[in-house]
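Schema walk-through. Below, the input block comes first and the output block second. Nothing else is stored per chain. Lengths vary across the set, and this one has 491 residues.
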Amino acid sequence: MDAKKHSKPEVRRKKTKILRDTSRVITRTHFPEGRFRIPKIIDRVLSLTENEAGELMEKINLDFFDRHKDIRQVLERHFDEVSEYLPNTEPISETKKMLIGAYFTLEYSVESAAIFNPSIVPHPDQTNVPGGSLRFIMSLRSIGEGHISSISFRSGIIENNSSFTFDPISEFVETPIIQHDPIYNRHLFQLKLNELNACNETSTRVLEQLPDEFTYNDLNKSIGSLLSNTDFECNDEAIKIICWLADSNYTIKFHSDQKISERVIFPVSKNESRGIEDARFVQFFHDNGEVTYYATYTAYNGFTILPQLIETKDFTTFNIITLNGEAVQNKGMALFPRMINGKYVMLSRQDGENNHIMFSEHLHFWQESKIIQEPELPWEYVQIGNCGSPLETSEGWLVLTHGVGPMRQYSIGAMLLDLENPAKIIARLEEPLLTPQEEEREGYVPNVVYTCGALIHNNKLVIPYAMSDIMSGIATVEVSELISCMHPLTN
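--- output ---
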């Protein structure tokens, strides 16, 4: 490492701002409080004449047709979700089916409250990109009504001169097709139940009826068979946990012709009913040369959090997987972009205060962690944690960190880890790299700058960062200058 040249590296903030757009809406099923009201609503629609129903549908089409790519398909799907409440009478016209679907549909503005906590990775498709430039995908945490978080995306190109060109943002936003994990591994499923203290006679009987590799339908049949057995009293809590675990692992698919900005990953399972928080995407290189994009995120159900893993190769199909092990706790897990000495490596913050590191031979299981960094400087006395996956440089693993200081001010710092022994810190900044400027201090959560992941392009560190949990911006810094400003650590 070169001798220190400056006390603090020069950070350049781009003028570009990523702002919320309240017009970006998805459709969701809308059930009234109390399911007993569903048949009443259906009966009211069925009592309309065909002319009355037709006039209402004309108005709905006029108001909503150009707000969604296929509103008819949405209404058909939502009609199907309440079809079990239909009376056993004469056939229903297509118009009334669509109208019933409309009464159980609502629009949800995914970015109405905020869009922040970005991470950035190279786009899997770099065709036709000018030399020296890089196409990227940026993920962002979007918040809408009820403070429900989801994952939104933007894309664009970082030019050779480090200027940013964002792709036009589509006026449409779409949620994906959802498929529960088609294949479960019984051994891994059993291990997770062990960690959840859900192993008893009920869970044993459910699993012993299943093959080594089973489907979601297989599991439901096994549970149904056990519930119908009058000679055995099922443990309801065990059944609940088994179903909860199965629902936490699923696959979502977008249409390949959808623009990346049209795709939003919205909470699906019960464990994330109150939001998907702070996805940290990383471009992961396997030993065989293949590339997979992973992201850790925090599922929140209003009471507890559950660390989850996303995996994708094309940002069209995403597998959602539960992370397992005693070390899978708290928020802020960040995966290294490759295995080190035959093991997966991840930064974490189990205790909500210190920077931890974990090693595992299995990507989905993490049993132990160790502290590598504790708060020691005034700007991080409250807590310290990572700000996304480490970036590999010739001098070490470059890690952005966040620190919380007085008045709960969040700042972004940086440290350097040893390439072969990433549990060892070899250098760090003593002063923050980014602190909230005056125009960045006001927002949903004041006095915060934060990122969930950066990238290196043309020897510059590109940092998308959130401003007070309401909008996002971009900053850049020369990697060599950043490292030269770090204070070497000898221990």
